[in-house]
Amino acid sequence: MSPDNIFEGANEDEESSSESNPSERKLGYGAAVVETMAQIMREDESVFLAGEDVGAHGGVFGYFRGLQPEFGEDRVVDTPIAEQAIIGLGIGAAVQGLRPVVDLMFMDFICVAMDQIANQAAKLKYMFGGGATLPLTITTAGGAGLSAAAQHSQSLEAMLCHIPGLKVVMPSDAYEVKGLLTSCIREDNPTVFIINKRKLADTCHVPEELFEIPLGEGHVIREGSDVTVVAIGRMVDEAKKAAEKLSGEGIDCELINPRTVQPLDIDLIVESVSKTGHAVIVHEAVRFGGIGAEIASQIQEQAFDYLDAPIGRVAAPFSPIPFSPALEKHYVPDAERIVTSIKNLF
Amino acid sequence: MEITDEILIDLYKRMVRVRLFEEEAGRLAESARLPGFLHLYVGEEAVAAGVCGALESQDQITSTHRGHGHLLAKGGDFNRMMAELMGKATGYCNGKGGSMHICDLDLAMLGANGIVGAGVPISVGAAYANKLTGNGLISVSFFGDGATNIGAFHEAANMAAALSLPMLFVCENNEYAEYSPRHKTMAITDVIERAAAYGFPGAIVDGMDCVAVFEAASLAIEKIRGGEGPMMLECKTYRFYDHVGVKGTASDYRTDEEVEEMRKRDPLVVHETRLIESGIMDADSIQAIKDDIQKEVDISVEFADQSPFPELEDMLVDVYTNGESS
User: In CATH, what is the architecture of B5-308?
Assistant: First the structure.
């Protein structure tokens, strides 16, 4: 799928994060980004968007399309290809009291901008003795599955989670896009909002009006008694399929979507594992040093006595992301691998 | 523009504030009373004084690891500065930032910075906010010659030009990137050439003369405030002490003779001579200014000495706004 036709071939998510009601309005994951941005920019003049091709072109994935015609070139700013300066633009404007949304086209490009993200945005408040407030949102497209190869497909959330001062947000569907993006932009801390590029066309119920989903509160998607499955970002979809399949085989999965990985709703996860006695964590990022390692560690610290089996992790192998579809489809975790991992616990 | 006696005296006071505070900090560092790294600005005072003297109070500045001078020249508070250098709870950053991260947002000083060149993109952001809100302010970034070799500077310069932002780039060319001389780290003699590469004007200024800096900065600021986009000053200057500390052990990177030669152009002496020869001040009134400021410096040391260190529970405070660290 090329970026320009990413909205085509929309799939409906089996079940949105909200109460499912077929009569309610459906919206695409990518379309939810545009709608949320537009509604927030209408209500708050301090919000502006800046990034590479976000204006006239509407973003390479189209999820900023229509914003520049409505809000003009000063509030929807096409920047040079200059990731450090893009983040710096956001930091300096945020310290002045504005609420910038700055876009890094692909999540891989955070590496280009890492000084401004890790050493500046994340730390200014603390280093300055609390004086600075940084209501800065960084949007970026993460995730594999488009044969975009090693520099346009990564899931680098664990790197960001390791840096005190940042919040890291990973919406799994269009409902969460709207609720979490609203929270990020209204939040007084630097947030990284990771848009999964394989989810852009998928639709689910999304309320018309702006609403907030609190950062740091996970969501129990499906209650179950046998195993706790913690799935991050797009992996929620695969975990749902796995849970469905296993329910026919007598394994009852409790599925948890943390929604934000920093802060992490570990209490919700520990409570669930204390009930089920089993845990499997699923993410797109490489397994070694991934957020799954942190979650597993905290589970064993807090719920060791409840565990009936080692904690399972389903994640990517320790290699760069391969280009060939033949390899990539085995690189990214899917429902089948999740099923296998869960069965191994019993 | 006319430079009044009042301005000339103001510039002098700004430089003396920096010099006497820094000399005191140097003495404290040598007697191991300051933790961490200390990058002294002594020798470069004319730049901070000349530029800050030409700014409105709410014009923003970003600074460098050698940042005490910029904050002091903009009106920074001795007590909070000295307390911060000692890591005390009463310091500018509650003792959690130190010398390399002093800031005063009330004075629109958006922070010193431990990463070379990193303040320049942040100034672009402040300049963008000025443009978007139409507040009439300009944003200034101080950086060294060494910083113009790092990508952040180039990205920021290009972006400021492309977006036609109200921003003044102030290069403090002290001829050394830490311990490496300019001729080994760049193939050009004048950093100002880099402004032209991005399509905005600039000028080379005698960075040892506060009046020259003030005049050039005033001219540039007027044009920038008038909407002409970014400009750059390259202030040729010199630091009298080492990259870090007072007299480092690795001082073979420059000769004592070179330092002595440059000390003859001490910006304070240059300006004192001007003030006396033009009859604006005499030796006694100059000494009186120094005595008054030294008293303030002494008080700041006493204040810092008597201030408490941060409490252990302050460790996790201010990692986030409105929230606790996990």
Answer: 3-Layer(aba) Sandwich (3.40)
